[in-house]
Amino acid sequence: MSQTMKIDSNERGKLCEAVIRKANSAGLIVERQQLIVGDYLLGAACVEAKSVGDLLHSCDSGHLWKQLDNMDANYERFFLLIHGTIKEYVKLHKKAYSAVQSKLVGLIARIMSDFDCQVFFTANTSEAAQFIIKLHNKLHKPASRHGAQAIRRVSTNDVRKDVLLAIPGIGPTMADRLLKECGSIEEMLYMDSLKKVKGLGDKMAKRIIAVLTSESVIHVEKSILKRN
Protein backbone atom coordinates (compact mmCIF):
# COMPACT_ATOMS: atom_id res chain seq x y z
CA MET A 1 0.00 0.00 0.00
CA SER A 2 1.29 3.47 -0.88
CA GLN A 3 2.33 5.72 1.98
CA THR A 4 0.35 8.93 2.36
CA MET A 5 2.02 12.31 1.96
CA LYS A 6 0.25 15.19 3.68
CA ILE A 7 0.42 18.74 2.35
CA ASP A 8 -0.65 21.74 4.38
CA SER A 9 -4.05 23.00 3.22
CA ASN A 10 -2.68 26.55 2.97
CA GLU A 11 0.22 25.55 0.73
CA ARG A 12 -0.09 26.94 -2.81
CA GLY A 13 2.11 27.79 -5.77
CA LYS A 14 4.41 26.15 -8.30
CA LEU A 15 6.24 23.95 -5.80
CA CYS A 16 3.04 22.52 -4.35
CA GLU A 17 1.68 21.81 -7.84
CA ALA A 18 4.94 20.13 -8.85
CA VAL A 19 4.97 17.98 -5.70
CA ILE A 20 1.40 16.80 -6.34
CA ARG A 21 2.20 15.94 -9.98
CA LYS A 22 5.33 14.00 -9.08
CA ALA A 23 3.59 12.27 -6.17
CA ASN A 24 0.76 11.12 -8.44
CA SER A 25 3.27 9.86 -10.99
CA ALA A 26 5.06 7.93 -8.24
CA GLY A 27 1.80 6.36 -7.06
CA LEU A 28 1.76 8.18 -3.73
CA ILE A 29 -1.44 9.16 -1.95
CA VAL A 30 -1.64 12.90 -1.30
CA GLU A 31 -3.88 14.47 1.34
CA ARG A 32 -4.46 18.16 2.01
CA GLN A 33 -4.61 18.84 5.73
CA GLN A 34 -4.01 21.76 8.05
CA LEU A 35 -0.63 21.02 9.62
CA ILE A 36 0.53 22.32 12.98
CA VAL A 37 3.61 23.72 11.28
CA GLY A 38 5.51 23.00 8.08
CA ASP A 39 4.42 22.50 4.49
CA TYR A 40 4.84 18.76 3.86
CA LEU A 41 4.45 15.88 6.30
CA LEU A 42 6.31 12.70 5.32
CA GLY A 43 5.30 10.25 8.02
CA ALA A 44 7.03 11.42 11.20
CA ALA A 45 9.17 13.96 9.33
CA CYS A 46 8.25 17.52 8.41
CA VAL A 47 9.53 19.66 5.53
CA GLU A 48 9.37 23.45 5.50
CA ALA A 49 10.04 24.78 2.00
CA LYS A 50 11.10 28.36 1.29
CA SER A 51 12.51 30.34 -1.58
CA VAL A 52 15.68 32.33 -0.88
CA GLY A 53 13.59 35.50 -0.60
CA ASP A 54 11.02 33.92 1.72
CA LEU A 55 13.79 32.59 3.95
CA LEU A 56 15.47 35.98 4.34
CA HIS A 57 12.17 37.77 4.89
CA SER A 58 10.96 35.27 7.52
CA CYS A 59 14.31 35.60 9.28
CA ASP A 60 14.00 39.40 9.44
CA SER A 61 10.41 39.19 10.72
CA GLY A 62 11.26 36.54 13.32
CA HIS A 63 8.67 34.12 11.92
CA LEU A 64 11.34 31.62 10.88
CA TRP A 65 12.52 31.05 14.44
CA LYS A 66 8.96 30.42 15.64
CA GLN A 67 8.50 27.87 12.85
CA LEU A 68 11.73 26.07 13.76
CA ASP A 69 10.76 26.03 17.44
CA ASN A 70 7.37 24.54 16.58
CA MET A 71 8.85 21.91 14.27
CA ASP A 72 11.39 20.99 16.93
CA ALA A 73 8.57 20.58 19.44
CA ASN A 74 6.16 18.59 17.28
CA TYR A 75 8.12 16.37 14.90
CA GLU A 76 10.74 13.67 15.31
CA ARG A 77 12.68 14.99 12.31
CA PHE A 78 12.37 18.18 10.33
CA PHE A 79 14.00 19.57 7.22
CA LEU A 80 14.38 23.04 5.73
CA LEU A 81 14.29 22.97 1.93
CA ILE A 82 15.46 26.13 0.15
CA HIS A 83 14.75 26.55 -3.55
CA GLY A 84 16.05 29.16 -5.96
CA THR A 85 19.42 30.87 -6.23
CA ILE A 86 21.08 33.92 -4.71
CA LYS A 87 21.75 35.20 -8.23
CA GLU A 88 18.03 35.27 -9.04
CA TYR A 89 17.22 36.98 -5.73
CA VAL A 90 19.80 39.78 -6.04
CA LYS A 91 18.79 40.43 -9.65
CA LEU A 92 15.13 40.75 -8.71
CA HIS A 93 15.66 42.88 -5.60
CA LYS A 94 18.78 44.75 -6.77
CA LYS A 95 20.89 43.67 -3.79
CA ALA A 96 24.64 43.19 -3.48
CA TYR A 97 25.49 39.53 -4.09
CA SER A 98 28.25 39.34 -1.48
CA ALA A 99 26.05 40.85 1.24
CA VAL A 100 23.18 38.44 0.56
CA GLN A 101 25.53 35.46 0.36
CA SER A 102 27.16 36.38 3.68
CA LYS A 103 23.79 36.80 5.38
CA LEU A 104 22.48 33.51 4.00
CA VAL A 105 25.56 31.55 5.05
CA GLY A 106 25.36 32.97 8.58
CA LEU A 107 21.65 32.20 8.72
CA ILE A 108 22.12 28.57 7.68
CA ALA A 109 24.98 28.16 10.15
CA ARG A 110 22.73 29.41 12.96
CA ILE A 111 19.87 27.12 11.96
CA MET A 112 22.07 24.03 11.83
CA SER A 113 23.87 24.83 15.10
CA ASP A 114 20.85 25.92 17.16
CA PHE A 115 18.34 23.36 15.87
CA ASP A 116 18.46 19.67 15.04
CA CYS A 117 17.49 20.56 11.48
CA GLN A 118 18.89 19.43 8.14
CA VAL A 119 19.05 22.07 5.41
CA PHE A 120 18.99 21.37 1.67
CA PHE A 121 19.32 23.63 -1.37
CA THR A 122 17.76 23.10 -4.79
CA ALA A 123 18.04 25.33 -7.84
CA ASN A 124 14.31 25.55 -8.62
CA THR A 125 10.84 24.29 -7.70
CA SER A 126 11.10 21.27 -10.00
CA GLU A 127 14.22 20.02 -8.23
CA ALA A 128 12.66 20.84 -4.86
CA ALA A 129 9.58 18.75 -5.69
CA GLN A 130 11.77 15.86 -6.82
CA PHE A 131 13.74 16.08 -3.57
CA ILE A 132 10.55 15.94 -1.46
CA ILE A 133 9.33 12.82 -3.29
CA LYS A 134 12.70 11.08 -2.99
CA LEU A 135 12.98 12.02 0.68
CA HIS A 136 9.49 10.67 1.33
CA ASN A 137 10.41 7.36 -0.33
CA LYS A 138 13.72 7.11 1.56
CA LEU A 139 12.05 7.74 4.91
CA HIS A 140 9.56 4.94 4.27
CA LYS A 141 12.10 2.30 3.27
CA PRO A 142 14.42 0.28 5.53
CA ALA A 143 17.94 1.71 5.48
CA SER A 144 20.39 -0.27 3.36
CA ARG A 145 23.94 -0.91 4.51
CA HIS A 146 25.08 1.71 2.00
CA GLY A 147 22.33 4.17 2.89
CA ALA A 148 21.58 5.50 6.33
CA GLN A 149 24.09 5.45 9.14
CA ALA A 150 23.39 5.75 12.84
CA ILE A 151 25.03 8.46 14.91
CA ARG A 152 24.82 9.57 18.50
CA ARG A 153 24.17 13.15 19.47
CA VAL A 154 27.15 15.12 20.68
CA SER A 155 27.47 15.04 24.46
CA THR A 156 27.21 18.26 26.46
CA ASN A 157 28.55 19.06 29.91
CA ASP A 158 25.10 18.50 31.43
CA VAL A 159 23.97 14.88 31.76
CA ARG A 160 20.35 16.01 32.11
CA LYS A 161 20.54 17.71 28.73
CA ASP A 162 22.16 14.63 27.17
CA VAL A 163 19.20 12.56 28.37
CA LEU A 164 16.75 14.96 26.73
CA LEU A 165 18.73 15.17 23.48
CA ALA A 166 18.51 11.38 23.17
CA ILE A 167 14.72 11.68 22.80
CA PRO A 168 13.72 11.87 19.10
CA GLY A 169 12.40 15.32 18.30
CA ILE A 170 14.16 17.17 21.13
CA GLY A 171 16.81 19.61 19.96
CA PRO A 172 19.22 21.80 21.96
CA THR A 173 16.82 24.75 22.12
CA MET A 174 13.91 22.72 23.48
CA ALA A 175 16.19 20.84 25.90
CA ASP A 176 17.33 24.17 27.36
CA ARG A 177 13.72 25.33 27.70
CA LEU A 178 12.72 22.12 29.47
CA LEU A 179 15.56 22.42 31.96
CA LYS A 180 14.89 26.11 32.56
CA GLU A 181 11.16 25.61 33.16
CA CYS A 182 11.16 22.24 34.94
CA GLY A 183 14.56 22.31 36.61
CA SER A 184 14.85 18.55 36.99
CA ILE A 185 14.16 15.38 35.02
CA GLU A 186 11.76 14.27 37.75
CA GLU A 187 9.59 17.35 37.23
CA MET A 188 9.28 16.44 33.54
CA LEU A 189 7.26 13.36 34.44
CA TYR A 190 4.22 15.56 34.98
CA MET A 191 2.10 16.88 32.10
CA ASP A 192 1.19 20.03 34.05
CA SER A 193 4.87 20.97 34.22
CA LEU A 194 5.52 20.24 30.55
CA LYS A 195 2.55 22.34 29.46
CA LYS A 196 4.37 25.40 30.80
CA VAL A 197 7.26 24.94 28.36
CA LYS A 198 7.01 27.33 25.41
CA GLY A 199 6.62 25.61 22.04
CA LEU A 200 6.22 22.10 23.45
CA GLY A 201 3.20 20.31 21.97
CA ASP A 202 1.11 17.63 23.68
CA LYS A 203 2.48 14.93 21.36
CA MET A 204 6.08 15.66 22.31
CA ALA A 205 5.18 16.06 25.99
CA LYS A 206 3.62 12.59 26.02
CA ARG A 207 6.69 11.19 24.27
CA ILE A 208 8.98 12.68 26.92
CA ILE A 209 6.95 11.14 29.73
CA ALA A 210 6.78 7.79 27.92
CA VAL A 211 10.55 7.68 27.39
CA LEU A 212 11.43 8.78 30.92
CA THR A 213 9.08 6.25 32.52
CA SER A 214 9.61 3.32 30.13
CA GLU A 215 10.70 -0.01 31.59
CA SER A 216 11.74 -1.24 28.14
CA VAL A 217 15.01 -0.66 26.31
CA ILE A 218 15.20 2.80 24.73
CA HIS A 219 17.41 3.18 21.66
CA VAL A 220 19.12 6.57 21.70
CA GLU A 221 20.56 6.43 18.19
CA LYS A 222 18.99 8.28 15.31
CA SER A 223 19.32 7.65 11.59
CA ILE A 224 20.44 10.30 9.16
CA LEU A 225 20.22 10.26 5.41
CA LYS A 226 23.40 9.84 3.46
CA ARG A 227 23.32 12.47 0.74
CA ASN A 228 24.69 11.52 -2.64
List keywords for this structure.
alpha/beta, 10 helices, 17% strand, 228 residues, disordered C terminus, two-stranded antiparallel sheet, DNA polymerase, domain 1
List the helices and strands and how they pair.
Layout: E1 4-8, H1 14-25, E2 29-33, E3 40-42, E4 45-51, H2 52-61, H3 63-74, E5 77-83, H4 86-93, H5 97-114, E6 117-122, H6 125-139, E7 149-151, H7 159-165, H8 172-182, H9 191-194, H10 202-213, E8 222-224
Parallel strand pairs: 1-2, 4-5, 5-6
Antiparallel strand pairs: 1-3, 3-4, 7-8
Helix pairs in contact: 1-6, 7-8
Can you tell me about this structure?
With 228 residues, the protein is an alpha/beta fold. It has ten helices and eight strands. The chain has a six-stranded mixed beta sheet, sandwiched between helices. Helix 1 (14-25) packs across helix 6 and helix 7 packs across helix 8 (172-182). It is globular and about 55 Å long. The model is unreliable at 145-154 and 220-228 (pLDDT under 50).
Q: What's the SSE pattern?
A: EHEEEHHEHHEHEHHHHE
Sheet with the most strands: spatial strand order: 2-1-3-4-5-6
Average of per-residue pLDDT values: 84
Number of alpha- plus pi-helical segments: 10
Quote the CATH topology of the largest domain.
Answer: Rossmann fold
Helix content: 40-55%
How many distinct domains? Answer: 2
According to CATH, what is the class of the largest domain? Answer: Alpha Beta
Question: In terms of per-residue confidence, which ranges show pLDDT below 50 for 5 or more consecutive residues?
Answer: 145-154, 220-228
Residue share in β-strands: 15-25%
Shape: globular
| Class from secondary-structure proportions | alpha/beta
